[in-house]
Design goal:
Helix content: 10-25%
Radius of gyration: 27 Å
Order of helices and strands: EEEEEEEEEEEHHEEHHEEHEEEHHHHE
Number of strands: 19
Shape: flat
Number of helices: 9
């Protein structure tokens, strides 16, 4: 439920239906000291997720943010964490603190870090209160996987892809330079109503008929008019809020592999504290809610479509929705830092450059990556497989001998996608938490269809995914 403390809530003067929740109330800027010994040398214990004093080893619990709507069925209008509000373009990245230990003035460049050390007494000063430049999010999800474990995971991933790897890459590969990075995301909760209508087919019979030397498979199916009407809440839909990382179609990098290591356990996020960033790098958010809303709505529609699929098991040939509507009753946005271990390698081929990533989800161990391919070796091996396939077609009796002619192409595509993983992505439509209630079904018989030649319903779209392809501008 929503916090009743009015000090945490700021009305938005531009839209009466928008509530801004101040998520950094009580945040301490400048020095943050250990509550036990007073030291400012504080870091994260990756095993427990707690903050730890590096002097006395005392650990203290992370603080959760307050004021956001917890019961999503009661979410109305737009609720925005103050860290997710629009970026003010002319905000100065440089923040000046006066060190409480020695009185010196210390400048923190929030474009590159949320912390700095006093150049006189060496105490750490941190930026925890939000400034309107996208550098301080509402929440942070602490690292749970240490660097050594991440190095082992990346080495194992690349080790399985060494045979066709580019020789220069194999010579230069080392995990010593992997980096722990906090990437900016928007976490979105939704309260919505979905209505879908169309037609679905249930298979009743499959049979073959001979025509000379060939056989054709036919299908009989019953056609139904189908409707699904339900309320749905979506919890923690994660969307990258960096324009660069949102571009999954770039010819210059392999951003999609970073997207593919989601989901994160965002329910364990804590109130932002710059001490969590110590020892890691971070990127600033450079997008606003209005830029991301079309993508969010497209992904939410995909999630709702897949939620409806749980009620469509009888339609084994698919459903063709002719009408899909998602009415959003309430939406809640939080800005977040989520942790990733990242290895990068830039492959240079003449004037072309491609930045390959191997990324590890620093919470779940999920890994995905792209490894540069030695194309002459792969093409040569694919040609050899094609020759062997042709010989097999000549000497083996097989009903589908045309597959032998495709063996080289199949081999090439298998290896290419195993190494490059250009089709890898976050399957948000299945992995995002959601809850469907007040379901109303309509399944009305229309007719029986005979002699269909398609194995699935023509025009079936109940498993379509549109959000991942949507571009953010």
């Amino acid at each position: 439920m929503q916090n009743d403390n009015n000090a945490n809530v700021m009305p938005n003067t531009n839209n009466d239906n928008v509530t801004v929740v101040k998520t950094d109330i009580g945040a301490k800027d400048g020095q943050q000291k250990c509550p036990k010994c007073g030291s400012t040398d504080i870091s994260t214990n990756t095993n427990s997720g707690k903050l730890r004093c590096n002097y006395c080893r005392y650990e203290f619990e992370a603080e959760k943010i307050s004021g956001m709507v917890e019961d999503l069925t009661r979410l109305q209008g737009q609720v925005v964490g103050s860290g997710a509000t629009d970026i003010v373009a002319d905000t100065n990245d440089f923040v000046t603190f006066k060190c409480s230990s020695c009185g010196a003035e210390v400048v923190v460049d929030t474009a590159s870090s949320a912390q700095a050390r006093c150049h006189w007494c060496r105490n750490t000063l941190s930026v925890n209160q939000q400034i309107p430049n996208g550098s301080i999010p509402d929440v942070v999800l602490p690292f749970h996987i240490g660097k050594d474990e991440a190095k082992t995971i990346i080495e194992k991933f690349v080790g399985k892809r060494k045979f066709f790897a580019n020789p220069k890459f194999k010579m230069e590969f080392t995990t010593e330079n992997i980096m722990g990075v906090y990437f900016p995301y928007m976490l979105v909760d939704l309260n919505a109503h979905a209505n879908l209508s169309g037609e679905g087919e249930c298979q009743t019979r499959m049979y073959t008929r001979s025509n000379g030397n060939s056989q054709t498979t036919y299908y009989d199916a019953d056609l139904y008019h189908v409707e699904r009407d339900f309320d749905i809440t979506i919890n923690g839909l994660s969307i990258e809020s960096s324009l660069d990382k949102l571009d999954n179609n770039s010819l210059n990098n392999t951003n999609n592999v970073i997207n593919a290591i989601m989901p994160f356990d965002v329910e364990n996020s804590v109130k932002f504290n710059a001490n969590y960033l110590k020892g890691y790098t971070s990127e600033k958010r450079d997008t606003n809610i209005e830029q991301l809303r079309p993508l969010m709505l497209a992904e939410a529609k995909d999630i709702s479509r897949y939620a409806a699929n749980d009620t469509l098991q009888a339609y084994d040939r698919g459903v063709c929705w002719s009408h899909e509507q998602l009415d959003v009753k309430g939406e809640q946005w939080k800005s977040a830092y989520l942790p990733v271990w990242l290895y990068s390698y830039q492959q240079v081929n003449g004037d072309k450059k491609l930045l390959h990533y191997v990324a590890v989800n620093a919470r779940t161990n999920e890994v995905m990556g792209s490894v540069p391919i030695h194309m002459p070796k792969l093409l040569g091996m694919s040609f050899l497989v094609e020759v062997l396939g042709f010989l097999a077609m000549l000497f083996l009796d097989f009903d589908y001998d045309f597959l032998f002619l495709l063996s080289g192409i199949i081999f090439f595509m298998f290896i290419f996608f195993k190494y490059r993983n250009s089709n890898a992505r976050h399957t948000y439509e299945l992995e995002t938490k959601r809850n469907m209630t007040n379901l109303q079904n309509v399944d009305r018989y229309v007719e029986s269809r005979r002699g269909l030649t398609n194995a699935t319903m023509s025009g079936a779209n109940n498993k379509n995914v549109a959000g991942y392809k949507k571009q953010v501008k």
